[in-house]
């Protein structure tokens, strides 16, 4: 049930303003195009300006030139400073809960604008939807977090904890934004995080992990007419790939299907010879090396270190047939799968909010990809729940859109989640 006090805070949400915010932020093209000097800075400045209007303390930090993070905080503690959130400071808020709302300001490329019904950054409203690159992933979610914090501030409700907003760069790339955020200490006092990614307001408590492995097999380069003067790396690479396929089947059989994430996978996404950066392919040249990249998606229960060891054993077996063959294994990235218990207070605060606002039971789910939340969980052990407005299958598509009804619901869910997770001191 929504209490009278909660109702009073919900009434501080301005839906027209919220929709205007989503449109305004979507109209700032924040695709990372270093050659053209375009990045997240203009979008981040827009977020910072809204935070300052709301009355939040803010910090603006460049991760690399043109790619900033915005950090904003709200507390009703009388001596609070945003820098208290970093643990290298003596802090009056040391034993308070800190709820983080997380979002990214970057969007993926719009592709060919001619394929879009409306210009990709027009934020056109049609049929109860806002259309535009980034509207769904995830400028709507970010604006819902802003509006939820705005409503809490406007209402004057006293919470027994503090709210942190992280609007970071480069989620779609190497996630340098959230990594910098963690390294700077901003996650040190966070006790739970709501990742505002598009999940149709489902309460997503599990995320797949990912590991990218670059596997190189080296032989000896030769003329294609005289292959016996060299050693062909492609046959051992072909054997390696069939072994990887069999290994994937064993992993699926061993770990089965996760209720929200489905089955794990091992997918060769790049297979090439010559290896990258080692010359042009030619019809009559047997290259000296072949490489492949494995995109491995993990579910809880799988151990990335163990998988890397098994892959290495397969590489070793494939080169053992000739002592002139060598292998290399490069671990490009490891992000562990995450899981937060259904009865964790942050999960329950969102789930009860959904139930109370819609009259329907909450829908639990999982995230097939990884998000900034993966980094928060892996590096700081922060319980994360991913929940925000926007159709799950629309991110990165042409004619990306987000439902206005879902936007309105998400902002309200965030208000109730913050009040219920942090708890109200007095009105
Ligand atoms: Zn996203």
How would you describe the overall organization of this protein?
The chain is an alpha+beta fold. It folds into 2 domains: 4-207 and 337-426, Aminopeptidase (3-Layer(aba) Sandwich), CATH 3.40.630.10; 209-335, Alpha-Beta Plaits (2-Layer Sandwich). 33% of the residues lie in helices and 25% in strands. It has helices spanning 4-10, 15-26, 41-54, 135-155, 176-183, 234-255, 304-319, 345-358, 372-380, 404-422; strands at 57-64, 67-74, 97-104, 124-126, 129-131, 158-159, 161-168, 192-195, 203-207, 209-218, 222-223, 265-272, 285-286, 289-298, 326-335, 338-339, 364-367, 384-386, 401-403, 424-426. The strands form 6 sheets. A 6-stranded mixed β-sheet has the order 1-2-7-3-8-18, sandwiched between helices. A 4-stranded antiparallel β-sheet has the order 12-14-10-15. The protein starts with a helix and ends with a strand. The mean pLDDT is 95. Bound molecules: zinc ion. Zinc ion binds next to helix 4. Zinc ion is lined by residues 104, 137-138, 171, 197.
The overall number of domains is 2
Cα Rg: 24 Å
User: Judging by the overall fold, what is the CATH architecture of the largest domain?
Assistant: 3-Layer(aba) Sandwich
Q: How many extended strands?
A: 20
What class do helices, strands and sheet pairing give? alpha+beta
The name of the CATH topology of the largest domain is Aminopeptidase
On the 0 to 100 scale, the average pLDDT is 95
Written as H for each helix and E for each strand, in order along the chain, the element string is HHHEEEEEHEEHEEEEHEEEHEEHEHEEHE
Question: How many distinct helices?
Answer: 10
Name the CATH superfamily classification of the largest domain. Answer: Zn peptidases
Give the fraction of residues assigned to helices. Answer: 25-40%
Instruction: Give the strand content.
Output: 15-25%
Overall morphology = elongated
What ligands are attached or bound here? zinc ion
Main β-sheet, spatial strand arrangement: 1-2-7-3-8-18
- Under CATH at level 1, the class of the largest domain stands as Alpha Beta
| Biggest sheet overview | 6 strands, mixed
Tell me the distance between the termini.
18 Å
């Amino acid at each position: 049930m929504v209490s009278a006090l909660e109702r009073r805070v919900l009434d501080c949400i301005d839906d027209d303003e919220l929709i205007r915010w989503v449109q305004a932020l979507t109209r700032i093209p924040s695709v990372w195009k270093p050659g053209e000097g375009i990045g997240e800075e203009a979008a981040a400045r827009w977020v910072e300006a809204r935070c300052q209007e709301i009355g939040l303390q803010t910090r603006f930090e460049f991760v690399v030139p043109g790619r900033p993070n915005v950090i904003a905080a709200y507390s009703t503690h009388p001596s609070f400073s945003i820098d208290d959130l970093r643990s290298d400071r003596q802090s009056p808020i040391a034993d308070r809960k800190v709820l983080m709302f997380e979002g990214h300001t970057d969007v993926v490329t719009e592709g060919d604008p001619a394929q879009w019904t409306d210009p990709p950054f027009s934020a056109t409203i049609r049929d109860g939807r806002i259309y535009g690159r980034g509207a769904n992933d995830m400028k709507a979610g970010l604006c819902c977090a802003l509006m939820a914090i705005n409503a809490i501030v406007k209402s004057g409700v006293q919470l027994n904890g503090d709210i942190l907003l992280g609007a970071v760069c480069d989620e779609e790339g190497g996630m340098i934004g959230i990594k910098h955020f963690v390294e700077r200490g901003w996650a040190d006092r966070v006790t739970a995080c709501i990742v505002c990614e598009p999940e149709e307001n489902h309460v997503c408590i599990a995320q797949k992990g990912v590991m990218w492995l670059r596997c190189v097999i080296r032989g000896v380069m030769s003329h294609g007419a005289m292959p016996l003067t060299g050693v062909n790396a492609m046959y051992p690479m072909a054997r390696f790939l069939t072994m990887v396929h069999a290994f994937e089947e064993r992993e699926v059989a061993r770990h089965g299907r996760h209720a929200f994430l489905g089955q794990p996978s091992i997918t060769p996404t790049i297979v090439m010879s010559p290896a990258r950066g080692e010359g042009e392919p030619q019809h009559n040249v047997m290259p000296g090396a072949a490489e492949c990249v494995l995109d491995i998606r993990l579910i809880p229960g799988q151990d990335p270190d163990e998988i890397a060891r098994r892959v290495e054993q397969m590489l070793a077996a494939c080169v053992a047939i000739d002592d002139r063959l060598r292998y290399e294994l490069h671990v490009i990235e490891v992000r562990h799968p995450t899981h937060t218990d259904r009865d964790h207070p942050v999960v329950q605060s969102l789930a009860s909010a959904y139930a109370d606002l819609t009259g329907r039971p909450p829908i639990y789910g999982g995230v097939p990809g990884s998000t900034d939340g993966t980094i928060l969980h892996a590096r700081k052990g922060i319980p994360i729940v991913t929940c925000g407005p926007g159709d799950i299958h629309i991110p990165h598509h042409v004619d990306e859109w987000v439902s206005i009804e879902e936007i309105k619901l998400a902002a309200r869910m965030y208000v109730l989640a913050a009040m219920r997770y942090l708890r109200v001191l007095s009105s």
